[in-house]
C-alpha cells in the first residue's frame, strides 16, 4: 500500500492537537513525576516491607478475582465451561489465601519464578540472536546475556533475594515512571502557545 506524500500530516496534526490540549496541565504532570520519584525512592529504602506489601496486594487481587470467577461460574451454571470456570476460581481463591497467609514464602516463590523467567527467556534470546544473526542481532544477544546474568544472580542469592528483589523492582519502576512524567511535563511546558 502506497502512502501519499504528506500522508503523515494528519497524524502529526493529531499529535500536535493532543499535546496542545494537555499543555496547560504540565505542572500537574511534573508534580506527579516528583511524587512518583519520591515514593519509588522511599520504597527502595525499605525493600523487604515493599516486597511483603506487594505480595499481600497481589494476594488480595488474586483472591478477589477468584471469588468473582466462582460467583460468575454459578451465575452461568448452564454453560458447558462451568466446571473449568469454577476450578479456575477456586484455584484463584486458594492462591490468594496462600499469598496472604504467608507473604514471605509467597515473595520467595515469586522471586524463583522471576529468576527462572529471566534465565530461560534470556537463554532463548541469546540463542536466537546468535543462530540467526539478523540486523541488530548484537543488541538482542546482549539483552539475553543480561537477562541470564540477572536470573543467575537472583537465584544465587535465594532466599534473601526473595525478600528484597520484588520491592527493589517496584521502587525502580516507580522512579522510572516518575522521571517519564517529569520529562513529559517539562516538554509540554516548552511547547509554544497556539496562535489565536
Please describe what this structure looks like.
- With 196 residues, this protein is mostly helical.
- Helices cover 84% and strands 0% of the residues.
- It is built from seven helices and no strands.
- The chain has helices at 9-23, 26-45, 47-75, 82-101, 103-132, 137-156, 160-190.
- Helix 3 crosses helix 5 (103-132) and helix 3 crosses helix 7 (160-190).
- The longest helix is centred in the C-terminal third of the chain and has 31 residues, at 160-190.
- The mean pLDDT is 87.
What are the main properties of this structure?
196 residues, mainly alpha, extended
Summarize the topology.
Layout: H1 9-23, H2 26-45, H3 47-75, H4 82-101, H5 103-132, H6 137-156, H7 160-190
Quick take:
The protein is built from 7 helices and no strands. With 196 residues, it is mainly α.
Q: Percent helix among the residues?
A: over 70%
Tell me what portion of residues adopts beta-strand conformation. Answer: under 5%
Radius of gyration: 23 Å
**Sheet bearing the most strands, described?**
none
List unreliable stretches of 5+ residues: none
Element order: H for helix, E for strand? HHHHHHH
Number of helices: 7
Give the N-to-C terminal Cα separation. Answer: 38 Å
For the residues shown, what is the average pLDDT? 87
Shape: extended
Count of beta strands: 0
**Structural category:** mainly alpha
Amino acid at each position: 500500500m502506497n502512502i501519499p506524500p504528506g500522508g503523515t500530516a494528519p497524524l502529526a496534526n493529531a499529535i500536535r492537537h493532543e499535546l496542545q490540549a494537555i499543555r496547560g496541565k504540565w505542572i500537574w504532570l511534573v508534580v506527579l513525576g516528583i511524587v512518583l520519584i519520591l515514593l519509588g525512592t522511599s520504597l527502595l529504602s525499605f525493600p523487604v516491607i515493599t516486597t511483603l506489601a506487594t505480595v499481600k496486594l497481589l494476594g488480595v487481587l488474586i483472591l478477589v478475582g477468584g471469588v468473582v470467577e466462582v460467583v460468575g461460574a454459578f451465575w452461568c451454571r448452564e454453560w458447558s465451561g462451568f466446571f473449568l470456570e469454577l476450578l479456575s476460581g477456586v484455584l484463584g481463591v486458594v492462591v490468594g489465601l496462600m499469598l496472604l497467609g504467608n507473604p514471605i514464602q509467597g515473595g520467595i516463590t515469586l522471586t524463583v519464578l522471576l529468576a527462572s523467567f529471566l534465565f530461560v527467556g534470556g537463554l532463548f534470546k541469546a540463542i536466537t540472536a546468535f543462530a540467526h544473526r539478523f540486523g541488530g542481532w548484537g543488541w538482542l544477544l546482549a539483552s539475553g546475556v543480561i537477562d541470564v546474568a540477572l536470573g543467575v544472580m537472583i537465584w544465587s542469592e535465594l532466599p534473601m533475594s526473595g525478600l528484597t528483589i520484588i520491592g527493589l523492582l517496584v521502587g525502580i519502576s516507580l522512579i522510572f515512571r516518575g522521571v517519564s512524567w517529569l520529562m513529559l511535563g517539562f516538554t509540554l511546558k516548552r511547547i509554544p502557545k497556539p496562535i489565536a
